[in-house]
Amino acid sequence: MKTKLINFLKHSLAFVLGFLIVFLAIIGLFSLTRGYYQPWLYNLFGYGKEESTFYEETEKVEESSPEESKESAITYVLAEEVKKKLDTAPKEIIILDTRKVEDFTKEHIAEAISIPFDVLDQKYQELDKSKEIYVISPCNVCGQASDQEIFDKLKSLGFNKIKIIQGGLEDWKAKGYPLTGQ
Predict the structure, then answer these.
(1) DSSP secondary-structure letter at 76?
(2) Do 91 and 147 fall within a single domain?
(3) Residue 41 has what pLDDT?
(4) Is beta strand 162-165 parallel, antiparallel or unpaired with respect to 132-136?
(5) Residue range 43-92, pLDDT digits in tens
(6) Which long-range CB contacts under 8 A does 159-162 form with residues at least 24 apart?
(7) 57-96: buried (b, 16+ CB within 10 Å) or exposed (e) per residue?
(8) How many domains does the chain have?
(9) Among 112, 94, 110, which Cα is nearest to 162's?
(10) Same domain flag for 166 and 86
């Protein structure tokens, strides 16, 4: 009876250890194939700062000042906030629609200005840099500019009060807010 119990415990321990090894291997492969890593995973296997190039890359990122990260962070707003601003202080904001002209023509917010992303470099002078800019960006899956690209472009052109409308025009429509177009 005692040997059966010992054999059972040995097999159980072997199973648990085997499962743990497979689990950690899967996490490691997933992490490395996604372009990021889990520091705790490297620490678990005994890698130190001097042995891992991953720590050097992380330290470079962490060394950036709070001002730099604050400048590059996108601010998202809900459609409700934009609607409230339009209702209370429409002269203080700009709604910038960066979708393609065809999409803008089909439907858009009445107060929006259409400047597609690909011509933003040439037409940004039409915008007042002192006003808050609420951006309607294209959908991320349709092959047009991403929120980050639009945000970075506007920043590089000297705009500082940039907010991206979360969910874009789709969220605006879902809330039942008015649109114009064909």
Answers:
(1) E
(2) yes
(3) 47
(4) parallel
(5) 555 544 444 444 444 333 344 444 444 456 888 999 999 999 999 999 99
(6) 159/124, 159/127, 159/129, 159/133, 160/129, 161/131, 161/132, 161/133, 162/74, 162/75, 162/133, 162/135
(7) eeeeeeeeeeeeeeeeebeebebeebeebbeeeeeebbbb
(8) 2
(9) 94
(10) yes
Q: Which of 22, 43, 63 is the last residue of a domain?
A: 63
pLDDT digits (tens, 9 = 90+) for 126-155: 899 999 999 988 765 455 678 888 899 999
Query: Whole-model pTM above 0.70?
Result: no
Report the pLDDT value the prediction gives residue 7, as an integer from 0 to 100.
82
Each residue of 105-121: pLDDT tens digit? 999 999 999 999 889 98
CATH of the domain at 164: 3.40.250.10
Residue 76, Ramachandran bin (φ over 0: left; ψ between -120 and 50: alpha; else beta)? beta
- Report pLDDT for 38: 46
> Cα separations (Å) of 90 from 60, 93, 115, 134?
42, 6, 19, 12
Single out the residue in 63, 97, 112 at which a domain terminates: 63
